[in-house]
Amino acid sequence: MNKESKDNILRTINSSFQTRKLYPPKHPSVIGTIRRLQQLLAEFLRTKNKLVVAMVNDELIFDDVPVARGREDYPDLFSRMNGKEIEAIIFEKGVSERELIAFVDTLLADHTGVDNLKRELSKSGVTHITLRAVGRGKGVFLRVYNDAIEVVKDTMNDIRMGKLPRAEPVKKVVGEMAELVLSDSSVMIGLTMIKNYDTYLYNHSVNVSIIGLSLGSFIGLEGEELEVVGTAGLLHDIGKTGITEDIIKKPGSLSYEEWEQVKQHPVIGERIIKRINGIKELVSRLVYEHHVRYDRSGYPELKGDVHPLSMIVTIADSYDALTTLRVYQKPYQPSEALKILKGLSGKHFDPVMVEKFADMLGVYPVGTLVRLSTNEVGVVIKANPVDTERPVVKVVYDRDGKQLKEPFELDLASSPSAPQIVGSADPCSREMDIGEFFTKEVG
Ligand SMILES: [Fe+2]
Ligand SMILES: [Fe+2]
After folding, report:
1. pTM of the model
2. How many angstroms separate the alpha carbon of residue 338 from the centre of ligand 2?
3. CA of 146 to the centre of ligand 1 (A)
4. Cα 171 to middle of ligand 1, angstroms
5. Which residues have CB atoms below 5 A from the ion given as ligand 2?
6. How far does residue 205's CA lie from ligand 1's centre (Å)?
Protein backbone atom coordinates (compact mmCIF):
# COMPACT_ATOMS: atom_id res chain seq x y z
CA MET A 1 0.00 0.00 0.00
CA ASN A 2 1.59 3.25 -1.00
CA LYS A 3 1.32 6.47 0.96
CA GLU A 4 -0.58 8.18 -1.77
CA SER A 5 -3.53 5.80 -1.91
CA LYS A 6 -3.70 5.79 1.89
CA ASP A 7 -3.91 9.57 1.83
CA ASN A 8 -6.43 9.36 -1.01
CA ILE A 9 -8.79 7.18 1.00
CA LEU A 10 -8.56 9.33 4.12
CA ARG A 11 -8.98 12.52 2.12
CA THR A 12 -12.02 11.14 0.33
CA ILE A 13 -13.63 10.02 3.60
CA ASN A 14 -13.02 13.55 4.85
CA SER A 15 -14.50 15.21 1.78
CA SER A 16 -17.53 12.89 1.87
CA PHE A 17 -18.46 14.55 5.16
CA GLN A 18 -17.65 18.01 3.81
CA THR A 19 -19.68 17.76 0.60
CA ARG A 20 -22.65 16.11 2.32
CA LYS A 21 -22.74 18.98 4.82
CA LEU A 22 -23.10 21.41 1.90
CA TYR A 23 -25.36 19.52 -0.50
CA PRO A 24 -28.40 17.22 -0.50
CA PRO A 25 -27.75 13.48 -0.87
CA LYS A 26 -28.58 13.33 -4.61
CA HIS A 27 -26.33 16.26 -5.52
CA PRO A 28 -23.66 15.32 -8.12
CA SER A 29 -20.81 16.40 -5.80
CA VAL A 30 -22.04 14.08 -3.07
CA ILE A 31 -22.65 11.19 -5.43
CA GLY A 32 -19.27 11.73 -7.11
CA THR A 33 -17.34 11.77 -3.84
CA ILE A 34 -19.09 8.71 -2.47
CA ARG A 35 -18.53 6.85 -5.72
CA ARG A 36 -14.85 7.72 -5.62
CA LEU A 37 -14.63 6.55 -2.00
CA GLN A 38 -16.34 3.27 -2.83
CA GLN A 39 -13.89 2.66 -5.68
CA LEU A 40 -10.84 3.42 -3.54
CA LEU A 41 -12.08 1.14 -0.77
CA ALA A 42 -12.91 -1.66 -3.21
CA GLU A 43 -9.41 -1.35 -4.63
CA PHE A 44 -7.86 -1.55 -1.14
CA LEU A 45 -10.12 -4.43 -0.08
CA ARG A 46 -9.17 -6.55 -3.04
CA THR A 47 -6.40 -8.14 -1.01
CA LYS A 48 -7.80 -7.63 2.49
CA ASN A 49 -11.02 -8.34 4.30
CA LYS A 50 -11.22 -5.06 6.10
CA LEU A 51 -9.77 -1.65 6.57
CA VAL A 52 -9.56 -0.27 10.08
CA VAL A 53 -9.29 3.49 10.43
CA ALA A 54 -8.63 4.12 14.10
CA MET A 55 -7.79 7.01 16.34
CA VAL A 56 -5.58 6.48 19.36
CA ASN A 57 -4.59 9.47 21.49
CA ASP A 58 -5.51 11.85 18.71
CA GLU A 59 -3.35 9.99 16.26
CA LEU A 60 -4.85 8.48 13.15
CA ILE A 61 -4.04 4.81 12.47
CA PHE A 62 -4.65 3.44 8.99
CA ASP A 63 -4.65 -0.36 8.75
CA ASP A 64 -2.47 -0.64 11.87
CA VAL A 65 0.03 1.98 10.72
CA PRO A 66 0.08 5.50 12.20
CA VAL A 67 -0.53 8.26 9.66
CA ALA A 68 1.91 11.13 9.48
CA ARG A 69 -0.72 13.68 8.55
CA GLY A 70 -3.22 14.79 11.12
CA ARG A 71 -6.14 16.90 12.15
CA GLU A 72 -5.39 19.78 9.74
CA ASP A 73 -5.43 17.43 6.77
CA TYR A 74 -8.62 15.54 7.62
CA PRO A 75 -10.53 17.95 9.88
CA ASP A 76 -14.00 16.50 9.27
CA LEU A 77 -12.92 12.92 9.82
CA PHE A 78 -11.25 13.98 13.08
CA SER A 79 -14.21 15.95 14.35
CA ARG A 80 -16.66 13.13 13.54
CA MET A 81 -14.55 10.49 15.29
CA ASN A 82 -13.69 12.65 18.30
CA GLY A 83 -17.13 14.17 18.65
CA LYS A 84 -18.91 10.82 18.52
CA GLU A 85 -16.31 8.99 20.63
CA ILE A 86 -15.51 6.59 17.84
CA GLU A 87 -12.23 4.76 18.26
CA ALA A 88 -12.35 2.94 14.96
CA ILE A 89 -14.29 2.75 11.71
CA ILE A 90 -14.06 -0.65 10.05
CA PHE A 91 -14.82 -0.95 6.36
CA GLU A 92 -15.36 -4.50 5.18
CA LYS A 93 -14.98 -6.08 1.79
CA GLY A 94 -18.13 -5.53 -0.26
CA VAL A 95 -19.00 -2.08 1.11
CA SER A 96 -21.39 -0.31 -1.29
CA GLU A 97 -22.10 3.31 -2.26
CA ARG A 98 -25.49 3.04 -0.61
CA GLU A 99 -23.86 1.98 2.66
CA LEU A 100 -21.30 4.74 2.47
CA ILE A 101 -23.90 7.47 2.04
CA ALA A 102 -25.95 6.04 4.93
CA PHE A 103 -22.78 5.97 7.02
CA VAL A 104 -21.94 9.59 6.22
CA ASP A 105 -25.50 10.71 6.97
CA THR A 106 -25.59 8.82 10.25
CA LEU A 107 -22.35 10.34 11.46
CA LEU A 108 -23.50 13.82 10.47
CA ALA A 109 -26.84 13.47 12.30
CA ASP A 110 -27.33 14.32 15.96
CA HIS A 111 -27.03 10.79 17.30
CA THR A 112 -24.58 10.38 20.12
CA GLY A 113 -23.08 7.26 21.61
CA VAL A 114 -21.52 4.59 19.45
CA ASP A 115 -24.23 2.10 20.40
CA ASN A 116 -26.89 4.42 19.01
CA LEU A 117 -24.87 5.03 15.89
CA LYS A 118 -24.49 1.29 15.38
CA ARG A 119 -28.24 0.84 15.75
CA GLU A 120 -28.90 3.58 13.19
CA LEU A 121 -26.44 2.00 10.76
CA SER A 122 -28.02 -1.39 11.08
CA LYS A 123 -31.50 0.15 10.61
CA SER A 124 -30.24 1.63 7.35
CA GLY A 125 -29.07 -1.80 6.24
CA VAL A 126 -25.36 -1.03 6.61
CA THR A 127 -23.58 -4.33 7.19
CA HIS A 128 -20.10 -3.64 5.82
CA ILE A 129 -19.20 -0.72 8.06
CA THR A 130 -18.80 -1.13 11.80
CA LEU A 131 -17.80 1.23 14.56
CA ARG A 132 -15.86 0.67 17.72
CA ALA A 133 -16.27 2.92 20.72
CA VAL A 134 -13.42 4.67 22.49
CA GLY A 135 -12.19 2.64 25.44
CA ARG A 136 -13.28 -0.57 23.81
CA GLY A 137 -9.87 -1.21 22.31
CA LYS A 138 -9.00 -4.83 22.70
CA GLY A 139 -6.55 -4.11 25.51
CA VAL A 140 -9.45 -3.46 27.86
CA PHE A 141 -10.58 -7.10 27.53
CA LEU A 142 -7.31 -8.46 28.86
CA ARG A 143 -7.18 -5.84 31.59
CA VAL A 144 -10.63 -6.81 32.85
CA TYR A 145 -9.77 -10.53 32.58
CA ASN A 146 -6.67 -10.00 34.71
CA ASP A 147 -8.59 -7.80 37.17
CA ALA A 148 -11.09 -10.63 37.57
CA ILE A 149 -8.28 -13.10 38.33
CA GLU A 150 -7.05 -10.74 41.05
CA VAL A 151 -10.53 -10.38 42.50
CA VAL A 152 -10.98 -14.16 42.76
CA LYS A 153 -7.51 -14.54 44.25
CA ASP A 154 -8.14 -11.81 46.87
CA THR A 155 -11.58 -13.20 47.68
CA MET A 156 -10.28 -16.73 48.18
CA ASN A 157 -7.28 -15.52 50.18
CA ASP A 158 -9.53 -13.51 52.47
CA ILE A 159 -11.55 -16.64 53.16
CA ARG A 160 -8.45 -18.73 53.76
CA MET A 161 -7.32 -16.18 56.31
CA GLY A 162 -10.68 -16.24 58.01
CA LYS A 163 -11.72 -12.80 56.76
CA LEU A 164 -15.09 -12.10 55.19
CA PRO A 165 -14.50 -10.91 51.60
CA ARG A 166 -16.01 -7.70 50.27
CA ALA A 167 -18.77 -7.72 47.69
CA GLU A 168 -17.79 -4.47 45.91
CA PRO A 169 -14.77 -5.68 43.91
CA VAL A 170 -16.74 -8.76 42.83
CA LYS A 171 -19.70 -6.69 41.69
CA LYS A 172 -17.52 -4.18 39.88
CA VAL A 173 -15.58 -6.76 37.91
CA VAL A 174 -18.68 -8.84 37.06
CA GLY A 175 -20.31 -5.64 35.75
CA GLU A 176 -17.28 -4.92 33.59
CA MET A 177 -17.15 -8.46 32.25
CA ALA A 178 -20.87 -8.35 31.45
CA GLU A 179 -20.39 -5.13 29.53
CA LEU A 180 -17.52 -6.56 27.48
CA VAL A 181 -19.43 -9.78 26.78
CA LEU A 182 -22.26 -7.64 25.41
CA SER A 183 -19.88 -5.56 23.31
CA ASP A 184 -17.94 -8.51 21.83
CA SER A 185 -18.51 -11.97 23.25
CA SER A 186 -16.05 -13.59 20.80
CA VAL A 187 -13.11 -11.70 22.27
CA MET A 188 -14.18 -12.62 25.80
CA ILE A 189 -14.74 -16.29 24.92
CA GLY A 190 -11.31 -16.28 23.27
CA LEU A 191 -9.78 -15.23 26.57
CA THR A 192 -11.37 -18.19 28.37
CA MET A 193 -8.87 -20.27 26.42
CA ILE A 194 -6.28 -18.99 28.90
CA LYS A 195 -5.85 -22.02 31.12
CA ASN A 196 -3.18 -21.46 33.66
CA TYR A 197 -2.18 -24.75 35.20
CA ASP A 198 -0.64 -23.21 38.32
CA THR A 199 -3.51 -20.89 39.03
CA TYR A 200 -6.15 -23.25 37.70
CA LEU A 201 -8.82 -22.39 40.23
CA TYR A 202 -8.60 -18.64 39.59
CA ASN A 203 -8.60 -18.89 35.80
CA HIS A 204 -11.32 -21.51 35.90
CA SER A 205 -13.52 -19.25 38.05
CA VAL A 206 -13.13 -16.30 35.70
CA ASN A 207 -13.68 -18.49 32.64
CA VAL A 208 -16.89 -19.96 34.07
CA SER A 209 -18.13 -16.46 34.79
CA ILE A 210 -17.43 -15.30 31.23
CA ILE A 211 -18.95 -18.39 29.61
CA GLY A 212 -21.98 -18.09 31.89
CA LEU A 213 -22.39 -14.39 31.05
CA SER A 214 -22.14 -15.17 27.34
CA LEU A 215 -24.73 -17.92 27.46
CA GLY A 216 -26.92 -15.83 29.76
CA SER A 217 -26.92 -12.84 27.44
CA PHE A 218 -27.39 -15.14 24.45
CA ILE A 219 -30.66 -16.44 25.90
CA GLY A 220 -31.77 -12.88 26.61
CA LEU A 221 -30.96 -12.36 30.28
CA GLU A 222 -30.10 -8.84 31.31
CA GLY A 223 -29.59 -6.65 34.35
CA GLU A 224 -29.80 -8.40 37.71
CA GLU A 225 -30.26 -11.90 36.33
CA LEU A 226 -27.14 -11.60 34.22
CA GLU A 227 -25.26 -10.22 37.21
CA VAL A 228 -26.38 -13.20 39.31
CA VAL A 229 -25.12 -15.68 36.69
CA GLY A 230 -21.79 -13.87 36.32
CA THR A 231 -21.27 -13.64 40.08
CA ALA A 232 -22.22 -17.27 40.65
CA GLY A 233 -19.78 -18.29 37.91
CA LEU A 234 -16.98 -16.30 39.51
CA LEU A 235 -17.65 -17.68 42.99
CA HIS A 236 -18.93 -21.17 42.17
CA ASP A 237 -15.87 -23.01 43.51
CA ILE A 238 -15.19 -20.64 46.38
CA GLY A 239 -16.02 -23.50 48.77
CA LYS A 240 -12.84 -25.24 47.65
CA THR A 241 -10.98 -22.89 49.99
CA GLY A 242 -12.38 -25.07 52.77
CA ILE A 243 -10.74 -28.22 51.42
CA THR A 244 -7.07 -29.14 51.81
CA GLU A 245 -5.00 -28.16 48.81
CA ASP A 246 -3.48 -31.66 48.58
CA ILE A 247 -6.88 -33.09 47.76
CA ILE A 248 -7.79 -30.34 45.30
CA LYS A 249 -4.54 -30.80 43.40
CA LYS A 250 -4.26 -34.57 43.79
CA PRO A 251 -3.50 -36.06 40.39
CA GLY A 252 -4.72 -39.62 40.95
CA SER A 253 -8.13 -40.85 41.98
CA LEU A 254 -9.50 -39.85 45.35
CA SER A 255 -10.25 -42.09 48.29
CA TYR A 256 -13.83 -42.33 49.53
CA GLU A 257 -13.13 -39.87 52.36
CA GLU A 258 -11.36 -37.44 50.08
CA TRP A 259 -14.21 -37.50 47.60
CA GLU A 260 -16.70 -36.91 50.39
CA GLN A 261 -14.71 -33.79 51.27
CA VAL A 262 -14.66 -32.49 47.69
CA LYS A 263 -18.40 -32.98 47.49
CA GLN A 264 -18.77 -30.48 50.32
CA HIS A 265 -17.49 -27.51 48.28
CA PRO A 266 -20.89 -26.34 46.98
CA VAL A 267 -22.30 -26.47 50.51
CA ILE A 268 -19.34 -24.58 51.96
CA GLY A 269 -19.55 -22.09 49.08
CA GLU A 270 -23.22 -21.40 49.70
CA ARG A 271 -22.53 -20.81 53.38
CA ILE A 272 -19.73 -18.33 52.68
CA ILE A 273 -21.66 -16.38 50.08
CA LYS A 274 -24.69 -16.04 52.33
CA ARG A 275 -22.47 -14.22 54.81
CA ILE A 276 -21.09 -11.70 52.31
CA ASN A 277 -23.07 -8.51 52.49
CA GLY A 278 -24.23 -7.20 49.16
CA ILE A 279 -24.22 -10.44 47.17
CA LYS A 280 -27.68 -11.50 46.04
CA GLU A 281 -29.23 -14.48 47.82
CA LEU A 282 -29.84 -16.25 44.50
CA VAL A 283 -26.07 -16.40 43.87
CA SER A 284 -25.63 -18.72 46.85
CA ARG A 285 -28.37 -20.99 45.54
CA LEU A 286 -26.71 -21.27 42.13
CA VAL A 287 -23.40 -22.09 43.79
CA TYR A 288 -25.07 -24.73 45.95
CA GLU A 289 -26.62 -26.30 42.88
CA HIS A 290 -23.77 -26.21 40.38
CA HIS A 291 -23.01 -29.95 40.66
CA VAL A 292 -26.56 -31.21 41.25
CA ARG A 293 -27.10 -31.93 37.54
CA TYR A 294 -30.31 -31.94 35.54
CA ASP A 295 -31.14 -35.58 36.40
CA ARG A 296 -30.01 -35.11 40.04
CA SER A 297 -27.24 -37.66 39.65
CA GLY A 298 -24.71 -35.22 41.09
CA TYR A 299 -24.26 -33.68 44.53
CA PRO A 300 -25.39 -32.42 47.02
CA GLU A 301 -28.83 -33.92 47.37
CA LEU A 302 -31.59 -31.49 46.62
CA LYS A 303 -35.21 -31.62 47.69
CA GLY A 304 -36.77 -28.92 45.52
CA ASP A 305 -36.26 -27.89 41.92
CA VAL A 306 -32.96 -26.92 40.36
CA HIS A 307 -33.06 -23.23 39.53
CA PRO A 308 -33.01 -22.69 35.72
CA LEU A 309 -30.06 -20.30 36.03
CA SER A 310 -28.06 -23.01 37.83
CA MET A 311 -28.04 -24.96 34.60
CA ILE A 312 -26.09 -22.13 32.95
CA VAL A 313 -23.34 -22.31 35.58
CA THR A 314 -23.25 -26.12 35.34
CA ILE A 315 -22.74 -26.02 31.56
CA ALA A 316 -20.13 -23.26 31.75
CA ASP A 317 -18.29 -25.17 34.51
CA SER A 318 -18.16 -28.41 32.54
CA TYR A 319 -17.21 -26.74 29.27
CA ASP A 320 -14.26 -24.95 30.85
CA ALA A 321 -13.13 -28.06 32.74
CA LEU A 322 -13.26 -30.19 29.58
CA THR A 323 -11.22 -27.73 27.55
CA THR A 324 -8.52 -27.49 30.24
CA LEU A 325 -5.40 -29.60 30.51
CA ARG A 326 -5.19 -31.48 33.78
CA VAL A 327 -2.92 -34.11 35.18
CA TYR A 328 -5.36 -36.86 34.41
CA GLN A 329 -6.91 -35.40 31.28
CA LYS A 330 -5.74 -34.04 27.96
CA PRO A 331 -7.78 -30.96 27.09
CA TYR A 332 -10.58 -31.42 24.61
CA GLN A 333 -10.81 -29.08 21.65
CA PRO A 334 -13.79 -26.71 22.07
CA SER A 335 -15.73 -28.54 19.35
CA GLU A 336 -15.09 -31.91 21.01
CA ALA A 337 -16.09 -30.55 24.42
CA LEU A 338 -19.33 -29.35 22.90
CA LYS A 339 -20.00 -32.85 21.55
CA ILE A 340 -19.49 -34.32 25.01
CA LEU A 341 -21.92 -31.81 26.51
CA LYS A 342 -24.47 -32.71 23.85
CA GLY A 343 -24.00 -36.40 24.67
CA LEU A 344 -24.90 -35.68 28.27
CA SER A 345 -27.87 -33.49 27.37
CA GLY A 346 -30.94 -34.51 29.38
CA LYS A 347 -28.66 -36.28 31.86
CA HIS A 348 -26.19 -33.85 33.38
CA PHE A 349 -27.46 -30.86 31.49
CA ASP A 350 -30.73 -29.21 30.68
CA PRO A 351 -31.35 -30.10 26.99
CA VAL A 352 -32.79 -26.70 26.10
CA MET A 353 -29.79 -24.91 27.59
CA VAL A 354 -27.29 -27.24 25.84
CA GLU A 355 -29.08 -26.52 22.58
CA LYS A 356 -28.75 -22.77 23.16
CA PHE A 357 -25.13 -23.17 24.13
CA ALA A 358 -24.43 -25.06 20.91
CA ASP A 359 -26.22 -22.34 18.91
CA MET A 360 -24.09 -19.72 20.59
CA LEU A 361 -20.77 -21.47 20.00
CA GLY A 362 -21.46 -22.79 16.50
CA VAL A 363 -20.05 -26.00 15.05
CA TYR A 364 -16.51 -24.66 15.43
CA PRO A 365 -16.43 -22.66 18.66
CA VAL A 366 -14.02 -19.76 19.18
CA GLY A 367 -10.66 -21.26 20.12
CA THR A 368 -10.91 -24.34 17.90
CA LEU A 369 -7.87 -25.08 15.77
CA VAL A 370 -9.12 -25.98 12.29
CA ARG A 371 -7.66 -27.31 9.08
CA LEU A 372 -8.85 -25.58 5.90
CA SER A 373 -9.43 -26.98 2.44
CA THR A 374 -6.21 -25.20 1.41
CA ASN A 375 -4.36 -27.27 4.05
CA GLU A 376 -3.72 -24.09 6.02
CA VAL A 377 -4.43 -24.27 9.76
CA GLY A 378 -6.12 -21.51 11.72
CA VAL A 379 -7.79 -20.64 15.01
CA VAL A 380 -11.49 -19.76 15.05
CA ILE A 381 -11.73 -16.22 16.43
CA LYS A 382 -15.36 -15.31 15.73
CA ALA A 383 -18.48 -17.40 15.28
CA ASN A 384 -20.78 -16.82 12.33
CA PRO A 385 -24.39 -16.95 13.59
CA VAL A 386 -25.79 -17.26 10.06
CA ASP A 387 -23.57 -20.07 8.79
CA THR A 388 -21.83 -21.74 11.73
CA GLU A 389 -19.54 -23.75 9.45
CA ARG A 390 -18.03 -20.54 8.12
CA PRO A 391 -16.61 -18.59 11.06
CA VAL A 392 -13.79 -16.05 10.97
CA VAL A 393 -10.40 -17.71 11.48
CA LYS A 394 -6.87 -16.47 11.94
CA VAL A 395 -4.54 -18.52 9.76
CA VAL A 396 -1.43 -19.49 11.76
CA TYR A 397 0.16 -22.28 9.68
CA ASP A 398 0.62 -22.13 5.93
CA ARG A 399 -0.26 -24.97 3.54
CA ASP A 400 3.12 -26.61 4.13
CA GLY A 401 2.62 -26.65 7.88
CA LYS A 402 5.05 -23.81 8.48
CA GLN A 403 4.10 -21.38 11.23
CA LEU A 404 3.37 -17.93 9.82
CA LYS A 405 5.30 -14.98 11.18
CA GLU A 406 2.28 -12.80 10.56
CA PRO A 407 -0.96 -14.71 10.98
CA PHE A 408 -3.81 -13.23 8.96
CA GLU A 409 -7.55 -13.07 9.39
CA LEU A 410 -9.80 -14.94 6.99
CA ASP A 411 -13.59 -14.63 6.94
CA LEU A 412 -14.74 -17.98 5.58
CA ALA A 413 -18.11 -16.43 4.72
CA SER A 414 -16.61 -13.56 2.72
CA SER A 415 -17.07 -15.31 -0.63
CA PRO A 416 -18.34 -18.67 -1.91
CA SER A 417 -14.81 -19.45 -3.08
CA ALA A 418 -13.28 -18.88 0.37
CA PRO A 419 -11.62 -22.01 1.83
CA GLN A 420 -13.73 -24.35 3.93
CA ILE A 421 -13.06 -26.10 7.19
CA VAL A 422 -12.27 -29.75 6.63
CA GLY A 423 -11.84 -30.69 10.26
CA SER A 424 -10.30 -29.71 13.55
CA ALA A 425 -6.57 -29.96 14.22
CA ASP A 426 -4.85 -30.86 17.47
CA PRO A 427 -3.18 -27.91 19.21
CA CYS A 428 -1.17 -30.27 21.45
CA SER A 429 0.53 -32.02 18.56
CA ARG A 430 1.64 -28.62 17.33
CA GLU A 431 2.59 -27.46 20.78
CA MET A 432 0.36 -24.51 20.25
CA ASP A 433 -0.95 -22.63 23.27
CA ILE A 434 -4.35 -21.29 22.26
CA GLY A 435 -4.60 -19.22 25.46
CA GLU A 436 -1.35 -17.47 24.66
CA PHE A 437 -2.61 -16.92 21.12
CA PHE A 438 -5.68 -15.05 22.42
CA THR A 439 -3.61 -13.12 24.95
CA LYS A 440 -1.52 -11.79 22.05
CA GLU A 441 -4.66 -11.13 20.02
CA VAL A 442 -5.88 -8.61 22.55
CA GLY A 443 -2.53 -7.43 23.87
FE1 LIG B 1 -17.39 -27.09 41.52
FE1 LIG C 1 -15.78 -25.59 38.77
Report:
1. 0.71
2. 17
3. 21
4. 21
5. 237, 317
6. 9
Cα–Cα distances (Å) from 166 to 212, 248, 275, 291, in that order, read 22, 25, 10, 25
CATH numbers and ranges of domains, the chain: 3-133 (no CATH), 139-361 (1.10.3210.10), 369-442 (no CATH)
CA of 140 to the centre of ligand 1 (A): 28
Please say whether the beta carbons of 38 and 95 come within 8 A: yes
* Alpha helical stretches, state H, 124-239: 139-160, 167-183, 185-191, 200-218, 223-235
C-alpha closest to that of 322 among 342, 303, 306 = 342
pLDDT confidence of residue 253: 83
**Rounded distance from Cα 236 to ligand 2 centre (Å):** 6
DSSP 3-state of 134 = coil
Ligand nearest to the CA of 289: 1
Low-confidence residues of the chain: pLDDT under 50: none
**What are 282-295's pLDDT values in tens digits?**
999 999 999 999 99
Distances (CA, A) of 363 to 65, 342, 360, 401, 436: 35, 12, 9, 24, 23
State the distance from the centre of ligand 2 to the C-alpha of 94, rounded, in angstroms.
Answer: 44
Note whether 152 and 159 are within 8 A (CB).
no
